[in-house]
Amino acid sequence: MLHGYGGNSKWQFIHQVSDLSKSFNLFIPDLVFFGKSYSRNTDRTIEFQARSIVGGLKRLGCGDGDLSVYSISYGGFVAYRIAKIWPEMIEKLVIVSSGVGFTQQQKMTEMKKHGGDVSEILVPSNPRDLRLLVKVSMNTGIRFLDWVPDFILSQFIAVMYETNRQELVDLAKNLLEREEEPELFSISQRTLIVWGDKDNVFPLEHGRRLQRHLPNSSLEVLKEIGHGVNIEAPTTLNNLIISFVLGVP
């Protein structure tokens, strides 16, 4: 399970671990510089994150071609890269709300729609920025933030972002400023793509384009759901993942 921006893996998968652990043995790492993960390496690329995950899996004795990877947003970029470079390790792939294949211009255009510096949105430093991140990421259930005191949001920011703030900003800039390959490379694994039809970060049309590009894929669209599918519709997402990976209707 590979998380996105917006906190560590424990926070992002809080509504999914209980259900998914009943059907699978779960590997839930914090990507490098998220949570307590750290490296002295100066590399900030998606490839570095992918190598780190693969290294961890191999140390655990995993990777004989029977792995399924579920990824959201930023984690989707990492998962897609693993599937391309180490195809022998992954049997099935689940990609949720991820801008894989977006050009630099497309990524910057979508993020700038929301105003402010992109790195400030992805790596908030104050309650105002955190509220904006949640507003951009979700279509439902966001009104509660108006009632949450600033000091609680500040504590959340301190736990999730302060330890490796500069590194997280560098990761975001590398992701947004790098130019993807002219032609989105294809992968052979069976792939489930899940998207909210109200995604304001990576619009649904990109999910449809990704599905057309991958002949061995299917697309599930969730109505009235935004970018944060794992938070807004965890039960539906869990059921889709279980059905897809286990091959049951």
From TrEMBL:
<keyword id="KW-0378">Hydrolase</keyword>
<dbReference type="InterPro" id="IPR052370">
    <property type="entry name" value="Meta-cleavage_hydrolase"/>
</dbReference>
<dbReference type="GO" id="GO:0016787">
    <property type="term" value="F:hydrolase activity"/>
</dbReference>
<dbReference type="InterPro" id="IPR029058">
    <property type="entry name" value="AB_hydrolase_fold"/>
</dbReference>
<protein>
    <submittedName>
        <fullName>Alpha/Beta hydrolase fold</fullName>
    </submittedName>
</protein>
<feature type="domain" description="AB hydrolase-1">
    <location>
        <begin position="1"/>
        <end position="234"/>
    </location>
</feature>
<dbReference type="Pfam" id="PF00561">
    <property type="entry name" value="Abhydrolase_1"/>
</dbReference>
<dbReference type="InterPro" id="IPR000073">
    <property type="entry name" value="AB_hydrolase_1"/>
</dbReference>
